[in-house]
Specification:
By secondary structure, the protein is mainly alpha-helical. The chain has one domain. The longest helix has 40 residues. The protein starts with a helix and ends with a helix.
Length: 143
């Protein structure tokens, strides 16, 4: 029983750290998104917001990869592990949960259940964050 309690405590602490990384990821993504829009708006391109989303997603995912690797999923470090492989898996996880799952859920909440488009993203977080944590812990950062 003591072992299961310790394991549960460890996973809970990891999840809290993952949430903290997620908050910083949001700030970094937003900062780079806005910076990209600002810089491109001066050139007159009409797709500045799309480029901003892409740059924000890429920088936020790389930021999360490094913080999750050092701060959250840092047990049993293997000096020979392939960081590139983990980074690619991280991009796949974030792409799946942030782009695919969140958009599908938004469609369901808004168009089927009639939930406000301003509330739907909050509901999405309740599903996508735990899913993102599980996929990162047991697939992308599995050692």
């Amino acid at each position: 029983m003591q072992l299961n309690l310790e394991k549960t405590r460890h996973i809970l602490i990891q999840f809290i750290k993952f949430g903290i990384v997620g908050l910083t990821n949001t700030a970094v993504s937003y900062l780079f998104n806005i910076l990209t829009i600002y810089l491109l708006s001066k050139t007159g391109v009409s797709w500045d917001y799309i480029a901003g989303n892409v740059v924000g997603f890429i920088t936020g995912t790389i930021w999360s990869f490094f913080l999750n690797d050092r701060f959250v999923f840092n047990e049993k470090k293997d000096p020979d592990e392939n960081k590139g492989k983990i980074l690619i898996k991280t991009f796949l996880v974030y792409g799946f949960t942030i782009i695919l799952v969140s958009n599908v859920l938004s469609y369901v909440w808004i168009n089927i259940f009639g939930i406000s488009k301003y509330i739907a993203p909050v509901i999405n977080l309740c599903i996508s964050v735990p899913l993102n944590f599980i996929l990162n812990k047991y697939w992308a950062f599995r050692r």
